[in-house]
Amino acid sequence: MEANNEDNLKRLSHEQWEEAWQKHWKKAQLDYELPVKDSEEHRFLSERRTAEKEKERLGRITSEFEMGFTKLSQLGPAVTIFGSARFKPGEPYYELSRETGNAFAKAGFTVLTGGGPGAMEAANRGAKEAGGLTYGLNIILPKEQQPNPYVNDSFEFKYFFVRKVMLVKYSCAFIVMPGGLGTLDELFEAATLIQCHKIGPFPLILVGGKFWKGLRDFVGFMADQGVFSPDEIGFSRIVETPEEAINMVLSSLPNDFKNSLKPL
Question: Which superkingdom does the taxonomy of this entry point to (predicted)?
């Protein structure tokens, strides 16, 4: 049955894609420019922007940046673990993320995640079970993103882009567990910043070869279409185990940095 499901996904037709868009995305996307009357989005899109209102918005954004900088500035060496919010305890990818968080904490790293359930919870949980420091950078969403209990502290963000800056700024490596749109957003954010020499270079590691096979195939297709150059293929290392991820990160660090780690 599993093989049949995989085959069906590989053969997703244009008609199936269109049917899914009509059912799940059409209303949200076509209503976006004209949201519910009197909502914040409606006022923002329909009214002329004024310098005063834009300064108010900038103030809220700046305040959120200041909160993140203040709370995270004292961290020691840290890694960020990205992944889906939808995995449940006992499921293979949940447990793989739990093992990964545990391994990095034991190696002396502070573990950062998006602070929610699923793979994020698992990574925080594994790190906490190892006795390490672990923090959640939670995002305010209508559903799915409630802070998990396995953190030393949880910091709440309204703006995705501010939260992503914090998840990238304070880490020396990025570990990507299986995930959906949000995880892919974070993966390509990190990859783009590294590619453009805006950060790092830092290790960018995907855990779970079976899950990431589709990404490899798509990147190959994109290269055939001329949008990936040969030196951009393989922009992240794909590994199967937390131990492989740990070894890659440790091998990338300068000796003085490695000496600052305090393995548990």
Answer: Bacteria
What the block records as the tokens of 260 is: 């600052």
Classify residue 237 by its DSSP letter: E
User: How does pLDDT run along the chain (264 residues), one tens digit per residue?
Assistant: 344 444 445 566 888 888 888 888 887 666 544 445 566 766 777 777 788 888 999 999 999 999 999 999 888 899 999 999 999 999 999 999 999 999 999 999 999 999 999 999 999 999 999 999 999 999 987 765 678 999 999 999 999 999 999 999 999 999 999 999 999 999 999 999 999 999 988 999 999 999 999 999 999 999 999 998 888 899 999 999 999 999 999 999 888 888 889 998
Burial 32-55 (b: 16+ CB within 10 A, else e): eeeeeeeeeeeeeeeeeeeeeeee
- In 191-228, which positions are buried (b, 16+ CB within 10 angstroms) versus exposed (e)? bebbbeeeebebbbbbbbeebbeeeeeebeeeeeeeeb
Beta bridge partners of 207: 239
